[in-house]
Amino acid sequence: MSTEINLNELYNNSIKILTDLISFKTISGEDNSALINYCEEYLHKLGATSFKTFDEEKKRVNLFATIKAKNSTNKKPIILSGHTDVVPVSKGWSTDPFTATIKDDKLFGRGSCDMKGFIACSLAYAPIFSKSKLDRDIHFSFTFDEETACQGAPILIEELKKKGIKDGICIIGEPTNMKIIDAHKGCYEYTTYFKGLAGHSSAPHKGVSAVEYASRYVNKLIELREKLKDRAPKDSIFNPPHSTLSIGGVFGGIAHNVIADKCHVNWETRPVVKEDAVFLNKEIDKFAKEELLPEMKKIFPNSSIEKDIIGEIVGFDRQDKSDACELISSLTGDNSRQVVSFGTEAGLFQEIGISTVVCGPGSIEQAHKIDEFIVLDELKKCLDLLDGIRNDSTIN
Fold it and tell me: Which of 70, 164, 322, 369 is deepest in the core (most CB within 10 A)?
């Protein structure tokens, strides 16, 4: 880092901010406005401008803030992007998951790794950005509900398009051990609801078991999963090389001796190419409409099968020339590029023409687990990268 920066103060401030961020219980689907207000107020004190976008209930919020360049050049703006939501907490934590705890050079807490660590570093470095003679804008993009099919980011992306912010370099700070990730599969999530006719289990022919038809639906999905393997591209860069499908849960029934009139299935697919998702949906919809539903309606005309789209997130495609990857490589000296199977918001930014890279502190191996943590040295590495961005964004 530059010699004029107090390294210890910067590092300690990142830990303080991360401690604050962890204390906000921003579980996916719940109100994240308190954390967003914290970030916005912090950035406003540094002279940043900002706007918010909301979900329909106005309780979940995206923030997009900007520290403007002091000197106008043709350099592309930098977007530092992170999601504010965390996954729910399971039992078995050895510490309070919403109280940051430091032990053995690790900071424990829900979201410490995925991905409040990156947001904390970005905020900790913001005062230095604000005092520097930047020749490009630095944006801060903080979204809601990334963990549930990226529900917040598309709302923000639409606003960016309206405001003409369609160019730049976006760094998605998901935990990658500060390695460059330049591709991942898409992530399509669905819930399919079955409504039948309840009755006594002694006369199954008089009812329509939603659970049984849901089971046949699941079996069809598993059959289609095998066909996805045969569609794997010869030059696939992913492991596994084919599109995947997973059943997240089947929920229905109230008792052993009652025909279940309601059931729903949670499922997802992670396509290597968009065409696989189109194929899968076409086949499963045809099966439900032409085979399952007619059988159900013969007994009970008001039977129904409805598929709810939770989110359909495009994949992140590898590009031969990437301004974002080249910037990170020039600052870290690491020219390697890797792919991952987990999803991010990267494809959404890439889709509107913003050069994007996934690179952030921490290891994905710690994400979503009991006693989630981030190694403190990862925060230092992230701050080093931000310092490199600052030096690359000033006129000497």
Answer: 322
Predicted confidence at residue 385, as pLDDT, reads 97
The length of the chain in residues reads 396
User: What is the dihedral sign for C-alpha 339, 345, 350, 354?
Assistant: negative
Dump strand ranges (E) for 40-197.
Answer: 49-54, 61-67, 78-83, 101-103, 106-108, 138-143, 169-172, 181-184, 187-195
Cβ atoms within 10 Å, residue 55: 17
User: Tens digit of pLDDT for each residue in 220-256?
Assistant: 999 999 999 999 999 999 999 999 999 999 999 999 9
Owner of token pair 């579980």: 27
Q: What is the C-alpha to C-alpha distance for residues 340 and 343, in angstroms, rounded to an integer?
A: 8
* CA-based torsion, 128, 130, 134, 137: positive or negative: positive
Q: Domains of the chain by range and CATH?
A: 7-184+316-392 (3.40.630.10), 187-313 (3.30.70.360)
- Torsional sign, CA 268, 112, 29, 215: positive
**Beta partners for residue 52, in sequence order:** 63
Q: What is the bridge-based pairing of β-strands 101-103 and 106-108?
A: antiparallel
Q: What global pTM score does this model have?
A: 0.89
Question: Taking residues 334-350, what's their average pLDDT?
Answer: 93
- HSE at residue 233, side-chain half, CA atoms within 13 A, is 13
Q: Which two tokens stand for residue 141?
A: 């993009």
